[in-house]
């Protein structure tokens, strides 16, 4: 076998060396070109400041938009270079998947370009709108108005708020164009739900502005009518009448005219709120709210009548207080405690006289009666029941106080009678014991009248009375035998002398 025949198999590989060298050269040049074009694309985009314009509020990020796009260009060109490299080496088994991938990518390029154009258009529109908002705010001096309305502390904060509003509109416009961008990329699974959400939002915005406009107009009308009503009532002397009836004191910020004006304001504002909620067409929120407001609106006449009743009760209560106080003062009711022996509550030492306290209690009773009727008109049954129970308890309380007062008076009377009749050394002790016995009995009677645990009060009274009787019996039966015998003998001798004298 000759040398040529031996090395014939090597020629199959050595003949490919020039192709391999050429392919490697193409790979090197293509890699350099891809790297250069990627850097060129990143540099060109950096000059446009695209990243700062789109993502200025996202803080420090690891990779900028320009660098990401540059890397995408670099890797896309590098894939094409690898395909050329493998085809030059006849490695079609490796090149075909790459060709398929590149074909898919090139097929998506028109969609990508369309999405980019839409994104650029949206960015341009958003930028114009942002600039228009800034210019418009500057023309109407919105920063100064925000400071004037106390929505900002100074001009710098106001300018920041205007800038934030402009940026919000900028990103809102981009958000509205986002479904079109996703649709251009044929991402239906994302774009369609997003588009439906934006459609619902866009459909809601006119309703929201209409409701806000209704509320604004209603508030302005209610405020205007309130001011007119307040000024009219002031001009006819309603506030002076309220001060004369002592419904409001002189110098208070509240007055009858302001109260009526606020009621009129609420009466106008409630239907306005109902109309605004109906305009929003949010059934889950508006229907319960409208129903509640309609019920409130239906209750307003009853509430007005109830307020009038309460005011009338307060006025009548003050009149009753004056009348009762003056009548009791003329009857010298303030000295009733002196007659009972309780001199610590004399009119000279107390802040309020006894007649004034009784007058206040009479006023409270009158106000409670009128308040109970007012609560019944507004259908607050629980409070009516509670207040009715309190009013029903007042006669029992009054009777208990009367019983206690009579007991104190009788105790004092018994003490005075015994001290004047019995001229013995033990007369003072006997009168005191009698006085406090009467007071204790009347105290138990008062507690029983109040209904404070009948069985306990009765049992306590029986036990006290029985204990006193038992103590008295034991004292005279055991420890006081000699004392009792002595006085009984004296009494017997006295009776004998009287009989012998007869």
Descriptive key words:
502 residues, mainly alpha, 3 domains, 18 helices, 84% helix
Describe the structure.
This protein has 502 residues and is mainly alpha-helical. It folds into three domains: 14-192, no CATH class; 193-281, no CATH class; 300-501, no CATH class. 84% of the residues lie in helices and 0% in strands. Helix 14 (354-377) runs antiparallel to helix 15 (381-421). The chain is elongated, with a radius of gyration of 51 Å. It starts with a helix and ends with a helix.
Short structural summary:
With 502 residues, the protein is mainly alpha-helical. It contains 18 helices and no strands. The relative contact order is 0.03.
List the helices and strands and how they pair.
Layout: H1 3-6, H2 8-14, H3 17-47, H4 50-54, H5 65-88, H6 92-139, H7 142-148, H8 155-184, H9 188-235, H10 238-244, H11 256-280, H12 283-330, H13 336-339, H14 354-377, H15 381-421, H16 427-450, H17 454-479, H18 481-501
Helix pairs in contact: 3-5, 5-6, 6-8, 7-8, 8-9, 9-11, 11-12, 12-14, 14-15, 15-16, 16-17, 17-18
Class of secondary structure makeup: mainly alpha
Question: Can you count the beta strands?
Answer: 0
pLDDT average, as an integer? 76
Principal-axes geometry comes out as elongated
How much is the radius of gyration in Å?
51 Å
Q: In this structure, how is the largest beta sheet organized? A: none
Low-confidence stretches: 343-348
* Count of folded domains: 3
DSSP helix count? 18
**Helical content band:** over 70%
Sheet-strand content, in percent, reads: under 5%
Report the oligomer.
single chain
Task: State the order of secondary-structure elements, H for helix, E for strand.
Answer: HHHHHHHHHHHHHHHHHH
Head-to-tail CA distance between termini: 193 Å
């Amino acid at each position: 076998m000759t040398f040529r025949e031996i090395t014939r198999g090597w020629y199959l590989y050595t003949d490919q060396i020039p192709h391999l060298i050429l392919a490697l050269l193409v790979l090197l040049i293509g890699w350099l070109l891809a790297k250069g074009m990627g850097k060129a694309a990143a540099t060109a985009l950096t000059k446009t400041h695209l990243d700062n314009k789109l993502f200025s509020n996202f803080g420090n990020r690891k990779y900028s938009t320009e660098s990401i796009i540059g890397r995408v260009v670099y890797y896309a060109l590098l894939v094409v270079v690898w395909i050329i490299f493998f085809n030059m080496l006849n490695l079609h088994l490796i090149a075909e998947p790459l060709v398929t991938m590149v074909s898919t990518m090139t097929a998506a390029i028109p969609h990508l370009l369309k999405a980019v154009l839409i994104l650029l258009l949206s960015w341009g529109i958003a930028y114009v709108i942002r600039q228009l908002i800034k210019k418009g705010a500057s023309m109407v001096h919105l920063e100064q108005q925000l400071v004037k309305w106390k929505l900002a502390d100074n001009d710098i904060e106001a300018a920041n708020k205007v800038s934030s509003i402009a940026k919000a509109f900028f990103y809102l416009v981009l958000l509205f164009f986002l479904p079109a961008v996703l649709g251009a990329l044929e991402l239906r699974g994302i774009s369609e739900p997003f588009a439906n959400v934006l459609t619902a939002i866009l459909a809601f915005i006119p309703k929201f502005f209409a409701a806000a406009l209704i509320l604004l107009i209603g508030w302005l009308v209610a405020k205007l009518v309130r001011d007119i009503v307040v000024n009219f009532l002031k001009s006819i002397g309603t506030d002076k009448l309220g001060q004369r009836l002592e419904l409001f004191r002189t110098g208070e910020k509240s007055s009858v005219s302001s109260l009526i004006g606020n009621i009129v304001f609420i009466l106008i504002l409630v239907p306005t709120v109902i109309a605004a909620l109906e305009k929003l067409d949010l059934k889950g929120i508006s229907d319960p709210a409208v129903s509640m407001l309609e019920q409130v609106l239906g209750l307003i006449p009853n509430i007005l009548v109830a307020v009038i009743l309460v005011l009338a009760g307060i006025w009548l209560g003050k009149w009753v207080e004056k009348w009762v106080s003056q009548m009791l003062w003329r009857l010298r009711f303030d000295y009733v405690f002196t007659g009972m022996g309780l001199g610590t509550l004399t009119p000279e030492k107390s802040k309020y006289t006894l007649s004034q306290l009784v007058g206040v209690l009479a006023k409270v009773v009158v106000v409670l009666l009128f308040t109970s009727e007012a609560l019944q008109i507004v259908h607050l049954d629980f409070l009516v029941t509670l207040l009715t129970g309190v009013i029903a308890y007042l006669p029992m309380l009054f009777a208990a106080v009367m019983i206690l007062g009579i007991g104190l008076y009788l105790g004092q009377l018994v003490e005075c009678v015994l001290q004047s009749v019995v001229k013995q050394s033990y007369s003072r002790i006997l009168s005191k014991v009698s006085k406090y016995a009467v007071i204790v009995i009347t105290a138990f009677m008062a507690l029983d009248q109040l209904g404070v645990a009948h069985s306990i009060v009765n049992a306590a009274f029986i036990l006290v009375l029985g204990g006193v009787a038992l103590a008295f019996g034991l004292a005279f039966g055991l420890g006081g035998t000699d004392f009792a015998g002595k006085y009984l003998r004296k009494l017997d001798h006295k009776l004998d002398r009287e009989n012998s004298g007869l």
